[in-house]
Amino acid sequence: MLGRLNSVRTALLGLMSSGVSKGPVDLSQYRSAMTSTSQKPEIATFAAGCFWGVEHIFLKHYPPSENKGILKTSVGYTGGKATSADPSYREVCAGTTDHAEAVRIEFDPSIVSYAQLVEFFYRTHDPTTINRQGPDVGSQYRSAIFTHSQEQQSVAEHVTKQVQDAHFTLKGQLIATEIQEAGPWYDAEDYHQLYLIKNPSGYQCPTHYLHW
């Protein structure tokens, strides 16, 4: 089921995949390496609506070139049916695979903690809506945290409670974010990667800004 905005996005993607150039972009500044030799990089996976904007806001505030903890990102699909392996963007948008559009973040835990990234995730979207962000509607746009260890699960649950108490309880709102163990990850098509870096005037969900 595609809404009007998805139709617009699909048309734009058709231009991208047909080879229309948006001008050269130095993508190396959006990749970094670990600064600590005593720790290994960790992975955080978040879904918060259209993955273009989710990736963009994380990179805007944690640019890898400035050594703020995020090493690199990728956008893709996760949390879907086991029978729907390696789905395409159009299949995910159709809502038949149950995958979420998500961002996979490799980070340096000696610089930024998982708890900080979870709290920032909540700041960047509306976690109280079910299967939607702003005008984008569908299960692929759900708010979700996909955890990669029991420790991440505990941290995500703890931070969620803190955010609920601090920012939503007094408003009579409840966080609807799903917290679940990460399953298979499928990278999205190449033209989705760093989309808003390559296309600054591209579509960005209006809920993707710092809410506090």
Can you describe this structure in just a few lines?
This protein is of the alpha+beta class and 212 residues long. The protein has 6 helices and 8 strands.
Chain-wise SSE layout:
Blueprint: H1 4-17, E1 42-48, H2 51-61, E2 70-78, H3 89-93, E3 100-107, H4 114-123, E4 132-133, E5 136-137, E6 143-147, H5 150-168, E7 178-181, E8 185-187, H6 195-198
Parallel strand pairs: 6-7
Antiparallel strand pairs: 1-3, 1-6, 2-3, 2-8, 4-5
Number of helices: 6
Distance between the termini: 33 Å
Which structural class is indicated by helix and strand composition?
alpha+beta
Helix fraction by DSSP (H/I, runs of at least 4): 25-40%
Low-confidence stretches: 1-5, 10-21
From the alpha-carbon coordinates, what is the Rg to the nearest angstrom? Answer: 17 Å
- Can you summarize the main beta sheet? 6 strands, mixed
Tally of extended strands? Answer: 8
Query: What's the rounded overall pLDDT mean?
Result: 91
User: Regarding quaternary structure, how should these chains be classified?
Assistant: single chain
Task: Spell the H/E element sequence.
Answer: HEHEHEHEEEHEEH
Which percent range describes the beta-strand content?
A: 15-25%
Tell me, what's the shape? globular
Strand order of the largest sheet: 7-6-1-3-2-8
Task: Explain what the structure shows.
30% of the residues lie in helices and 19% in strands. The protein has 212 residues and is an alpha+beta fold. The strands form 2 sheets. The protein has a 6-stranded mixed β-sheet with strand order 7-6-1-3-2-8, with helices on one face. Helix 5 links the parallel strand 6 and strand 7. It is globular. The chain starts with a helix and ends in a 14-residue tail after the last helix. Residues 1-5 and 10-21 have low confidence and may be disordered.
